[in-house]
Design goal:
Chain lengths: 322, 132
Amino acid sequence: MNVRSLPVEQLVEMSAAGDRRATGRLLTIVERGGPDADHITELTHAFSSRARVVGITGAPGAGKSTLVARLIAGLVADGEHPAVLAVDPSSPLTGGAILGDRVRMSEVESVAFIRSVATRGHAGGLALAIPGGTRVLAAAGFDPIVIETVGVGQVEVDITAAADTTVVVVTPGMGDAVQANKAGLLEVADVFVVNKADRPGADDTRRDLELMLELSHVTGQEDATYRPPIMMTNSLDGSGVGAVAAAISAHRLHLVESGMLADRHERRARFEVATRIQARLDITVQEALAGDDSMSLIRAVAAGQVAPTTAALSIFPFSPVL
Amino acid sequence: MSDRHIRVVLAKLGLDGHDRGIKVVARILRDAGMEVIYLGLRQTTDSIVAAAEQEDADVIGLSMHNAGHLTLGPAMLAALREAELDVPVVIGGIVPDADIDELLASGVAAVLGPGAPADEVVTTVRRVVQGE
């Protein structure tokens, strides 16, 4: 039987009954976007906040995939049914991608569900594909769902930050305390992992992160009830990985006990709804720009005859900020 | 359709450490705009079936340099039938001319030899996917 010819209602039923071909197919449709993807979202929306969602992010080569494979193996041993969405970049030139995360996950790929996701080009595509894919996996009975990204670019940071628990993986030699204090990825961490902790400089990296967290206290950014732990790991030999799993569970418990879990779910929902609205606005903006009047205004801006502020207001006369 | 990315699962099946060719093919297909799910060395028919299901692969590419193609090629097809998975298989690598007909007769969709230029690799994969 070729699942590709089946309607999405039937695929959702088969997926819930454990047919992995159907789950794989649904993820493809969700990733592609469009009316069928929206239909799947309507059929599975009750699962929006059902599964635990863990984001794991860090620079390429930090050891995320190997760490994820270890965490997944531990979850399976505990009787859980985990799934992974492993995001890798598409080429901006050709749209192609080499998705290599499964290479590190070969030991768990028959017991867990692992899906490689290319970032693809279009704005908002990934930002909708990930929550959509998370729901498909939750509706298929998977929990927790791990989202692995390289954390480059705002969309990827947003996606990871929209997880219930965000793990940021760093390695020795990533830079000094000044780098750690630059705004960005590190601010969204609920759990820090210093991977390759057997390498020289691991303790320096730990100290820099500690200092950064201390400064959060000085500036009042700190959450008085929770401080992100810094875990030292070697994901190749597995040392420290059990402690990371425990830290993720502890953060989960903190969210539940403090009532902050609902906040995280709302943050995720807001992000997804906002992305959908933005996608529609984008189309409206492109349409507004396509007219002849707009073209002549744009040429006038390029020639230095009209200010871009004037042209923008004239083409698209909304000024909600002013 | 511009959003229609062909998804290719690429693997070395069995005991075979020669992964230079498969890496070249991965790059060729990526640069042709395809999404290559690279499994790498020492895969089993089961691990490839699992990947093809989860990744919703349009085509499976096997790189063979261990003279096992006449055994492992049909074994791969049998595993896919067993899983009721309708995905074409392309074999590349070192396959003697005399074995090509037997592989095609067993159900392998195409065989690409060592001299195959990049555009032949791309057009073969596209043809196999469209002819599914």
